[in-house]
Amino acid sequence: MARHGKRYLEASKRIDRTRLYDPEEAVRLLKQTATAKFPETVEAHVRLGVDPKHADQQVRGTVTLPAGTGKRVRVAVFAKGEKAKEAEAAGADLFLMPSRFEPSGLNQLYSMRYGTLPVVRRTGGLADSVVDATPDAVARGRATGFVFDAYAPEGLQAALSRALAAYRDGPTWHRLQQAAMRQDFSWDRSARRYADLYALTVERAQAAALH
Predict the structure, then answer these.
(1) Whole-prediction pTM value?
(2) Predicted confidence (pLDDT) per residue in 51-78, tens digit
(3) What domains can you pick out in the chain, each with its CATH number?
(4) Which of 8, 50, 60, 161 is the most exposed, fewest CB within 10 Å of its CB?
């Protein structure tokens, strides 16, 4: 049986081995028990519910952060509630919302905030909030997604083809992401526009009263 040092024994006193900790509690315990004066390694063992006997369910590798191994970096996020939804939006490259009708729409706003470019049909709030990636809009730094008109598979396929072509062009893709993330759909922006409209209305009313 392996013998443990004093540091390990002191840290183990803080952990109840008879209970399950949620990720937030586990991270807090890790911070409380960390005593080394250098970045320590943390091993996370996750039950994925997969059967490694099947080729399509095998976990084939890991990535060491922050330097990586030269492969594409994938990050596992532990979250719940609204934070889980934010993580899903932030982790995607494209967000599809080919709605037939959409009075307003919020999901495309969430996705743009995290640089996930929306592919939407030109209707309702989707048409109002997403600027199609035409060559001119891209060049002017205004394009924020991909918009199509026809409510048909061909329309969606054409928009997806444009999106994938942009994805393969790194500089163009990053330009689109940055434009999408700059969009301001907050109440502050709406309030300013209402205030400006009110001021203009009052000014015109006063000018008309003088005549």
Answers:
(1) 0.59
(2) 777 766 666 555 555 555 555 656 666 6
(3) 82-184 (3.40.50.2000)
(4) 60
